[in-house]
Write a structure and sequence with these properties.
Layout: E1 19-22, E2 26-31, E3 34-39, E4 46-50, E5 66-70, E6 74-81, H1 85-101, E7 108-115, H2 123-137, E8 141-145, E9 150-152, H3 153-156
Parallel strand pairs: 3-9, 6-7, 7-8
Antiparallel strand pairs: 1-4, 2-3, 4-5, 5-6
């Protein structure tokens, strides 16, 4: 009888090539010409995890591009998307489920989908999608245009 390999432990926060730490006042994350800039005026510790294809190598499931952590308080699941909103929602939802079960997640988690090339035409329905996501997953979802704004962790967490 063949021996089974032991389950791979969760990636450690320090020393993982998929995880970077920074105290820069602005953290810009981009992929394929689509980007998001996070404001960090007080230079708190930021954790940037390259999630899709690096930290998470689960096949067949949706994976968001990055997870940006702020001061051990909040994680932002970030999906940078060209145009497919339905696929972006699936990736954020799948990542949210897996990330909640990961040992290194921070206490609060929010999701952010940033569009670049083609912003969804149904912009009037985006607020409805964000509310439905909150009701279904008990998690805030933000859908925004690439480079349209700089993101504050305070605002993303739902505080004015």
């Amino acid at each position: 009888m063949a021996r089974r390999r032991p389950r791979r432990a969760a990636a450690p926060a320090q020393g993982n090539q998929c995880i970077e730490f920074s105290r820069d006042p602005n953290l810009h994350v981009s992929e394929k010409g689509i980007g998001a800039t996070f404001v960090n005026r007080k230079r708190k510790e930021l954790r940037k995890i390259k999630y899709d294809g690096c930290y998470c190598r689960v096949g067949g499931a949706g994976r968001a591009d990055f997870i940006i952590g702020f001061d051990r308080l909040i994680d932002v699941i970030l999906e940078l998307k060209g145009s497919d909103l339905k696929h972006a929602l699936m990736q954020a939802t799948d990542t949210l489920g897996r990330w909640r079960a990961d040992a290194i997640h921070f206490p609060r988690i929010v999701c952010l989908i940033v569009f670049g090339h083609t912003f969804p035409r149904m912009s009037s329905k985006l607020g409805v999608l964000e509310r439905e996501f909150l009701d279904e997953h008990n998690t805030l979802l933000w859908i925004r245009k690439s480079a349209a704004e700089r993101f504050s962790f305070r605002r993303l967490s739902g505080r004015p």
